[in-house]
Design brief:
Structural class: alpha+beta
Low-confidence stretches: none
Mean pLDDT: 94
Number of strands: 13
Strand content: 15-25%
Oligomer: single chain
Distance between the termini: 63 Å
Number of helices: 8
Largest sheet: 6 strands, mixed
Length: about 325
């Protein structure tokens, strides 16, 4: 029987350790990290760490009882230790990516409507859930943090123009660009981008073919190109579409130069690596481990699916939460 226990122990520990990087295992023409439901699991490392912590407590107590009562429990004790080590590793991965919960940026000395300053550019990315986080909610965030680029997922052109009009009343001029959307779903399927006139003139180019929209802007004056994206969510019935869309997005940001790509990516850094992407997150080391969805749970337990990828140098970042969207937003300053 001890051999059976030993085999079970090895299997349990192997599966538990695999949760750290499911991408090590291939499934057909893609890897396990991109396969339902593992794709959802790896997106929620904080919950995985919590579950493993609970399993550690339970198995440790059972192992202790068996040892005291029967002088047995070695294999369960080993499994218990494995749960603790892997759970702690998930937490340390999130901690290394950054768990700073700052909600605002330092004073802006970069580009403003009256000066180029030190050249720093500030980006806000927010999924407003069809305007549940309103433009009046976002207005002070943009104005107070010196935001130059606003990427809004699930936000109609009408709402984006409303934000631009509000900012104009503060003396801040923004141009509005939109992915366009089905007239019957203008909020959910629309991605919009606002760009400060201080960054110069931009031309909208052909965009990525994403279910929920993409905006591709090319600078005509040497500034950074800007790409706003919103791939489809990785629900069970849309796994193939999801894999295709995020692979396309991450292939773009892996090779881009002088470009800022932002939005609700419906995927994490782990999924990015699983597609073979080598994009650089501007949140890494600061807030990259803070979950932006769902906003109803603590950031440690959420999924960090809203992000900004760029080849510019990150200077500061923050996580913001206003209104009634199911997402938190991300603020990033690069230079």
């Amino acid at each position: 029987m001890k051999y059976v226990y030993a085999i079970l122990t090895v299997l349990i520990l192997a599966i538990t350790a695999l949760s750290l990087d499911p991408g090590l295992i291939s499934v057909g023409d893609h890897n396990l990290a991109l396969t339902y439901p593992v794709s959802q699991m790896i997106a929620m490392r904080g919950i995985v760490a919590l579950v493993l912590g609970v399993l550690f407590v339970v198995t440790f107590i059972l192992a202790l009882i068996r040892f005291i009562a029967f002088r047995k429990g070695l294999f369960m004790g080993i499994v218990s230790a494995g749960f603790l080590i892997v759970g702690a590793s998930h937490y340390f991965i999130l901690s290394d990516r950054g768990l700073n919960d700052a909600s605002s940026l330092p004073p802006d000395y970069g580009v403003t409507h009256v000066s180029q300053g030190n050249g720093d550019i500030t980006i806000l990315s927010y999924n407003t859930l069809g305007g549940q986080t309103t433009m009046s909610d976002l207005e002070p965030i943009v104005a107070d943090n010196g935001v130059d680029v606003v990427v809004l997922s699930e936000t109609s052109t009408e709402n984006a123009q409303d934000l631009a009009d509000r900012l104009a009343q503060r003396g801040l001029s923004f141009n509005v660009f939109s992915s366009g959307a089905d007239q019957y779903r203008p909020e959910i399927e629309s991605t919009t981008v606002l760009v400060s006139s201080a960054l110069g003139e931009y031309r909208q180019s052909p965009s990525l073919d994403l279910t929920y929209g993409s905006v591709n802007l090319r600078s005509l004056e040497g500034g950074p190109d800007i790409i706003g994206v919103h791939p489809v969510a990785p629900v069970k019935d849309l796994q193939d579409v999801w894999r295709s869309e995020i692979t396309e997005v991450y292939s773009v940001c892996s090779s881009m130069e002088n470009t800022i790509l932002a939005g609700d990516l419906n995927s994490t850094v782990d999924h990015m690596h699983a597609t073979g992407g080598t994009c650089t997150s501007a949140l890494d080391g600061r807030n990259g481990g803070v979950g932006t969805w769902p906003a109803s749970v603590n950031g440690l337990l959420g999924s960090p699916i809203d992000n900004v990828y760029t080849d510019w140098t990150p200077k500061a970042s923050a996580i913001v939460e206003v209104g009634d969207s199911d997402h938190r937003g991300v603020l990033v300053r690069v230079g």
